[in-house]
Specification:
Strand content: 35-45%
Helix content: under 10%
Radius of gyration: 22 Å
Oligomer: single chain
Shape: globular
């Protein structure tokens, strides 16, 4: 959906609007159009009243009935390559994130900033397992890369629940690594459904420590019993995203998790579709190729710089019910955040659950 108009440099605010029967507001979520191409995006996730069927905030450590496992490149077990618990009384405690040498010199080893981070979270500290937090010490840690870490829930029963979403707080930085959430409906005998949710992001990408991941998993575990959910840090890949054929050092950095919930899918929810290698919001500058949102258009030497911009953004219906009159709203703001004018794209009359538009 692409409204087009002329702007005189200032601030822009882009939002989706829609009409939903029997509801006062929509939950704004961020998804990809395909279950196997989920992209965690920046931004706020607004939650209404939703029944929570399962939750874990790690206030008492990693539950004893969960499975925490580590493997080498050939998937042979190696004990040290597992998720660590950070608690208020552990060493290191909740104030420390990654102890990896490269993470500490660049990011001070900052922890995740989830809602309950102060009472505990978990981390797969890949870089530290490889270098023990020391300079010039690659491959000399307790579990040198490449390695794989997995953390698996106990068996869960959603027999009476048709519409489910999985939510968790996630903070990661990766290199040559794939991050997965996999699902079993036979108590862990097999994991046929996988969401690879950092696909398409650039190498060395680092998320905001407040990032929240939300995904519709109704088609995977809805009305199922014997459900187990597994979080996998797979560091066996090279910088091109392919499995490293020689098994030499590849994956690195970290993945922190907290505040995991399985909850009722909202009746009405709209999300943003992000394409590979592109910003979730597209801008065409004077009819030219896409420009990332965030380029500044300002006044130089008192002269207004007039430019024609086109905006495009994709949306997906991630709620249970059909959305109506879906359109893109663009607010044009001055430096005091006063709305100068507003433009809307053409409306889509109806958007079925799971359907997307561009």
């Amino acid at each position: 959906m692409k409204p087009s108009f002329t702007l005189l440099g200032a601030v822009l605010c882009l939002t989706w609007t829609a009409n939903a029967q029997n509801t006062k507001s929509l939950n704004t979520k961020e998804y990809s159009s395909g279950i196997n191409n989920y992209k965690p995006l920046s931004g706020n996730h607004q939650t209404g009243n939703q029944t929570i069927y399962f939750s874990e905030d790690f206030s008492n450590g990693i539950p004893s009935n969960w499975t925490n496992q580590g493997f080498d490149f050939n998937l042979n077990p190696i004990a040290p390559a597992i998720f660590e618990y950070r608690g208020s009384n552990t060493n290191p405690d909740v104030n420390i994130g990654s102890r990896d040498y490269y993470s500490t010199i660049h990011y001070d080893g900052a922890p995740i900033e989830s809602p309950t981070a102060n009472n505990g979270f978990v981390i797969f500290d890949s870089g530290y397992l490889d270098n023990l937090g020391l300079a010039n010490n690659d491959q000399n840690g307790s579990a040198p890369s490449p390695h794989v870490g997995s953390l698996t829930t106990d068996t869960l029963d959603f027999t009476s629940v048709s519409h489910l979403e999985l939510k968790f707080n996630s903070h990661f930085k990766f290199w040559g690594t794939h991050l997965y959430v996999t699902f079993s409906t036979d108590a862990g005998l097999s994991y046929p459904d996988t969401i690879h949710f950092q696909e398409g992001l650039s190498q060395t990408f680092r998320t905001n420590p407040k990032s929240e991941v939300v995904m519709n998993v109704s088609s995977i575990i809805g009305n199922k019993d014997n459900v187990r959910i597994r979080f996998v840090f797979d560091g066996r890949y090279d910088e091109t995203g392919n499995l490293n054929s020689d098994g030499l050092k590849t994956g690195a950095f970290f993945w922190m998790l907290d505040d995991i919930e399985l909850r009722r899918l909202p009746d009405y929810a709209i999300g943003i579709v992000k394409e590979h290698g592109h910003s979730e919001i597209k801008m065409a500058y004077n009819g030219d190729t896409d420009w990332p949102l965030g380029n500044r258009f300002t006044v130089t030497n008192g002269t207004n710089q007039t430019r024609k911009l086109s905006f495009g953004i994709g949306a997906i219906n991630q709620g249970k019910n059909t959305l109506h009159n879906v359109k893109l709203k663009v607010d044009y703001l001055d430096n005091s955040n006063n709305i100068l004018f507003t433009e809307f794209s053409a409306a889509t009359s109806s958007l079925l659950p799971g359907a997307s538009i561009q």
